[in-house]
Write a structure and sequence with these properties.
Helix content is about 60%, strand content about 5%. It has helices at about 20-25, 30, 35-50, 55-75, 90-100, 115-150, 170-195, 215-220, 230-235, 235-265, 290-315, 330-350, 355-365, 370-380, 385-405, 410-420, 430-440, 445-460, and strands at about 155-160, 160-170, 270, 355. A two-stranded antiparallel sheet has the order 1-2. Strands 3-4 form a two-stranded antiparallel sheet. Helix 7 runs antiparallel to helix 10. It binds arginine (ARG).
Amino acid sequence: MTDHANTMWGGRFAAGPDAIMEAINASIGFDRRLAQQDIAGSRAHAAMLAATGIITDSDAEEIRKGLLTVLSEIEGGTFPFSAALEDIHMNVEARLKEIVGEAAGRLHTARSRNDQVAVDFRLWVRDQCDAADAALAAVQKALLGQAEAGADWVMPGFTHLQVAQPVTWGHHMLAYVEMLGRDRSRFADARKRMNLSPLGAAALAGTSFPIDREMTAAALGFDGPMANSLDAVSDRDFALEFLSAASICAMHLSRLAEELVIWSSAQFRFVKMSDKWSTGSSIMPQKRNPDAAELIRAKIGRIFGANVALMTVMKGLPLTYSKDMQEDKEQVFDAADNLMLALAAMAGMVADMTANRESLRAAAATGFSTATDLADWLVRELGLPFREAHHVTGSLVAMAEDAGCDLPDLTLAQMQSVHDGIRQDVFDVLGVENSVASRTSFGGTSPVRVREAIAQWQKHLG
Ligand code: ARG
């Protein structure tokens, strides 16, 4: 063995790796983020090795104390990371050896980096599921605050981004609260499924040592050990589930961000972003740009990209571990970091923005938004089949359009020229307030229903 051969497997190597080999092979540049999880996994493993009599209590104690020292060095920023030691697992073990000597060499009994990295990464992704849940709850609370403030404010509801029917601001805000609620349940589902321990699968086949996998699983907060050792070291669908939940969540954020961009424009003026969440222009003094919303809108790109990248890495990989799988971490780290940033920005932006009740109301009354109310009135009051009512209303809309006015501005005589049964009380349903108030069906936009939904969510979100 030369000086340059790896100390972990140098036995059969005469020379160290080429510099480029080291560069492509090393993951320490990014997997140092798994240090805490790696040390937690090693502590659980060492305690179990002692409890089962595989190593002595005194060796386990040396290892435990040594690992705590390593952890404090890493946390204190004094740990000497080395690319020659490839990854976090070997960096920690090598340093442990320097600190405690021979006992360190016993830590890797009945274990492999394959089950080790699977444990570390699962623990890390599990934490991210919890972080996503908390961050999503904060966005939901900000939206709920907006919903409460304007539960009955009238705004246009859109289809095809054309004014469709009046809705309430509270209802629109709650639509996102619902979406984010489903996002939370997706992360919770993924968390539940991923919460089984790969530790003890060893390289791929299990081990001949009398290990206790239940014990290490419990020590690490897992619900139990994974049932198949081959699957345990080669599965990355836990990370893919996180990325797909993150992608759907980022897609939701992107839609809301898009609305905020549109709504804060001079043409809409539905909302005003606070100074804290706006930027100016270096040349156009009048500008207030919603940069945070635009960036949140764009984050879906990299998050969805990470999902596709890891799917592509994993597809076609034979069982069990292949070094390809080392490419899982950077994608997930980047996606998680950006998701958390987007969620935090969205929570702040939504909490601080001010909806413009007057602009919302004025826009709600444009675009013949109560045409459906008129058609419904013809059905209800005159007994017209809906298709005929639709036709009559269409003629009235065309008449108003020709006259350059809105539906409520037509005279009764004009209306009667299209259908002679129309009465004065039709005007009651043409106002936007009456329109939203009438939509009391479950899940509908009427302020009564919206306030009920707000109360439900308040109870739920605390
Ligand atoms: N750095 C590796 C990874 O991230 C750890 C596992 C290495 N296992 C191996 N058999 N080379 O995947």
